[in-house]
Amino acid sequence: MEYNDTYQTIAFESEEVLFKEKGSKFFGYAYPIENEDEVKPIIENLKKQHPHAVHFCYAYQLGTAPKISYRANDDGEPSNTAGAPIYGQIQSFGVTNVLIVVVRIFGGTKLGVGGLIAAYKTTAQMTLEICEIIEKTIDVQFLISFDYKNMNKVMRVIKEKKLEITSQEMEINEESGLPIGKITTKTRKKNAESIFDIFDLMFEIDIKII
Fold it and tell me: One cellular component GO annotation, for this chain's record (predicted)?
């Protein structure tokens, strides 16, 4: 079975870009994000940077197919003239786990629906063009639990399969008084099934997907 277990995102927060149209200024920003809770603090921070701006329009996308979530926000601009063209550029560049914000300072001349769409699209495009786009793997995390006496067996598989350990701890079993090891590890999605099966078949070792 073929897995697509990679996705593209931006490496780090972009520098500010500026697009001007008929006196209006459009400032563009891009941020790598992992969840929607990160969006509000970013917007609040931009509002402090631009106290004279009225519109803080944005779009974001999180996750990979089939579990993609996204939002496009016009923030007071006419419907679908800001958030949608920004989101269109996220799709065009094929990136996810990314937030694009375009801050508009009104210049006194109305741009009309077509003008607004073009301005927000262009600013989002300029913003993504200066970003470093990188490829990341979609990973699956496992929690492996085992009696301390089986530590070497577990570590041998982790080493052989080049698994990344994200956390490691020891507990005392209340019934036996013996130490229990708990290791959290991750692997690429395409390898997850075979890794799970290896540990699942091992005696006295428990594995579950987090």
Answer: cytoplasm
